[in-house]
Amino acid sequence: MGKNSLKRAIELDVVDFAEHTSAHGIPRAYVSTGWRRYMWLLCFLFCLSCFGHQAYLIIERFNRNDIIVGVEIKFEEIKFPAVTVCNMNPYKNSAARELGAIRNALEAFEMAIDKSDGNAHSKRMKRSSNSKMIPVDLMCKEEHGMLMANEFGHLECTCITFDDSETNEDEDEMYWNCHRKKDWNHRICHVAEEHNQLKTCKCYEENCIEDGVTKQMMWPLQMKRNGTKLCISVESGGPSYCANSQKFEVSTCKSCDWLGKCEEENEEESGVEEKKKSCICHHGNCFQIKNNTKVVMKVSTESNSRMRIFQKKKRRAPERKVHERLLSRYEGLLAVYSHCNCTTQHGCVSTSVPDMDLENSNKTCLCFYNQKNEQVWPCYKEPEWEERKCSRCNTLGDCVYTDKPKKQNISCLCATPIKMCVRIDPPQTNETTLDDRIVKFWDIQPSTTMSPIVKKKEERDKAYGYSGVKDRIALRAKAMENIIFAVDALTESQKWQISYDKSDFIMKCSFNGKECNVKHDFVEYLDPTYGACFTYGQKLGNITNERSGPAYGLRLEVFVNVTEYLPTTEAAGVRLTVHATDEQPFPDTLGFSAPTGFVSSFGIKLKSMVRLPAPYGDCVKEGKTEDFIYTQKAYNTEGCQRSCIQKHLSQTCGCGDPRFPPYRESKNCPVDDPYKRECIKNEMHVATRDSKKLGCSCKQPCNQDVYSVSYSASRWPAIAGDLSGCPHGMAAQHCLMYKREQGSMIEVYFEQLNYESLLESEAYGWSNLLSDFGGQLGLWMGVSVITIGEVACFFFEVFISIISSNRTKRRPDRKSFSSSLRCSTDYNLNKDGFNLDN
Question: Which stretches are transmembrane (predicted)?
Fold first, then answer.
């Protein structure tokens, strides 16, 4: 087919479409002539452009994937959530101090507290010693968590009162600052103006009161005051011993020589029948004194005119370690650990620094150390030493070897090859090793090379991070972090050993008004911040409330045992969190605190959320990956964020944060490594300030139950009478105070037996798109589905005209719609007698 024939065929197709299409405007433009045709064409193009703009807006809205959140209150059976409770004190103080890492952390914290209060300490002591107040020993009773002077009390205590005051009926105004007698210590806090007198004080923590007892040195000793220092010397010579006057403590001694120098009495020798002497001591250096005892008489004017006499008693100073006392003496002899070169020919020889070039130099042995000539000899390997009991030791530390050690009572260490013994400290606990009681020679002897022990201690102190910190709150927060790091290095059994047991912590329990089984209904786990925590609801499966309100929820009576609180714990009470049964609880960030002495009521409401995944929303149906550190729990955003941070820390610092579970096979950072802890600190700042650098993608789960909590509290117990949970024989009023100090009541319940359902759905779907698209086509173009079919047929016929060479020959001539209509009209009108032609 030629070009003219093809052109003619396409023109016929266009004419046929223009005459027969159902779309508005196109037939009008075709049949019209002159300016009317152009008007209809312009109108058609304008409507087409308007439709195009509206179509763009419709498609843009569809691509936004908007959602609608439907809120509905449903009255259906509600599953009771899991409730996790923890003691705000993570570990028992007495048990925790038996473990070296925790003990070191607590001792470093206490030293940091003492240093931070150094200036305030001296000012308080000076002010207290100048006042006319004295301490008195009397009987007290505990009221409202405080000790109050009371003649019918059962606790021995020491209180403060005015020296020249007259008693009256209101005893509470006479005595204040009462504490248990054993909590006060007896030391020197002020030196009198006269050079031959000094005063002693009773001190509770940093609060000191002059006791009014004058102490004088025994002849031939004399005391001189040099500013804040106290110097004691023999009368014929110059000063022989000087120290801070506040560091001297009053004690009892024995074996004083004619110069007045004494050996302090210890617990092992306390039963020996020997005349005791009063003395003052500083780090094992003791000097004999005269003691002018004084009895303070206080008369109480009461209805029966009874008289009470309070007599002051001395408190023994804390016992010093044996090596500290021996090192303070001129001729002290003690056992020390030392670096040695050991050979079969010459035995072991002490070296100040191990020689790495020698094969046998990197060994540690036990040696005798003579304080007089600073000689470390002889030395033997540790298996050649034996810890025994000796019958007699002199003040220099030398002990007599005996063949019957079981009948003796003084701890000593003997070199079996030469049967020579020196005195050592007895073990404090079963876990105390010989290494803890023997001094290291490199710790007491200056050296150009820092010993491994000293270097490790300095690194540990640096890792603790107390340097330069003076604020108590900041120190306590740092100490809590150090304890978390220290506990992480313990074994699982050691962690449970120092934690609270659920039978001791949870005293009573009820659910739905029925008693529950504490042993079987609670699941225990170890939280890095709060130690042992206990979860109710995980073992029981789908448990539901019969009714709403506190009486039909979970009710717990807990015992927090304040007497075992660590010094780093700031508040007494319970930490509680409400969560889904398959989720990991996070009491450190998502918990609530319940104080002791109150009924803490937690009303909960459930919100059940169903989110849409992509492209409509940003949730995940299953978000757990291999990097999720809470492997046994369901996915949530908090766990995802912690997993992401822990992964970053493990890859950057080589170890993780012990506040989170370890990442895969990596370990958490140790407490005494300052460099890794500094890395953890810096990278945590990076993670919190710019989390995008970590590449974390923590999306919300598509199905989630969220519990909102409201809190209220009231005083508990209300009245005295219930003696359950109190020590046997305790009076009702004392039991009331005991429970308010040590216990708490917890209530967790549904406020209403309905829940709020939040369901996401698509706001603009395919049905909306087709409806709006068809409406716009009909409005602007008059187009329907039939019109769309006509357009399809038009393009199909054009395509056939192009590829078919004989199409015009085969296809019969087609009449247009307008010519057919005119022919039909002419025929009908002529038949009826009308003529339309002019």
Answer: 38-59, 777-804
